[in-house]
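Input chain follows. Return structure tokens only.
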Amino acid sequence: MQLDSSSADNLRFDLRAYERLAELLPRLLAEDALEPLIAAIADAVEELIPCSAVLLFESREADGALMPILMRGLSRGTGRAPIHPDGDSLEALALASTEPVLSRRSTPSGGETIASVPLVVRGRATGCLTVHRGIDQVFLDEELRFLARLADMAAMSLDNVQARAKLAELAQTDELTGLLNRRGFFAAFDRILAQGARDGRCTSVLTVDVDDLKLVNDEFGHPAGDAVLVSVAETLTRRTRRGDVVGRLGGDEFAVVLSGATAGAAERVREELERQLAEGTVQTPHGWIGTAASVGAASAEPGRIEGATLVASSDRDMYLRKNAGTGSLTGASGEEGAGAGRVHR
């Protein structure tokens, strides 16, 4: 049986599409970063389908709005605002129907044909792949099949990237306070030190040791101690700059990296934080418990120094202050006895 020219062209396209998808799938599933992933998807579209623009949208978790994450081929300066999922845009219709949607529209340059294909993973639409071409170029059935398969692969791959990012974040996040854990903190600290060395900027670190936390845990239970730790974390986050790094190193110890801060600036922040923590209280079933802590500081000129070394220096400063009684060991009430200075009923 001999195929006519049209059927032969369709078969050749299907074979090329299959080969391209088979080559692309392992690359996409192995990719950890977003930018190379979406670039590979756009490259595959442009390789097989003549088009003027390729757009990729991702559904925002908070409200379902479609956010553009790729806008290849649009004129420079052209922007796309988030698309409301309940609107009448082509992408919103594709998202709602979980089926490809086609449209032809007039433009100042003559017009265009648009195909928007939903990204669906585990039965849920998570975004759209939209392709623009000239108004006289209809989308063939085999082209739409290719786009649908590519969209399925894109959906799986984007889902994998997000899952890996969440796992990486969890691996570096303290579950109780939401701060960076020890591993995440030192990774961020080393990056700041390296940047400081390149820019010729100082770096300082503060270490914070919550006073009498064991006593609070022993007398009032770990939920009360956890409440103190959460309050301390909130104070440290609230009282530092956006570019600073705050982490919980473990137990009752926290640390703060002050990017670009000199020794004098770090000392001023240290005093302010210690004062704020000494004045802080948190309500528990046992009454108000103070959040006093001892704070040490250490600074380094730009150069070769490891984060662990600077934290150790700050720890020594903190323990010297604690042992000398210069730390803020008095809480809200000033009461004596077990847990002195920590509980105010």
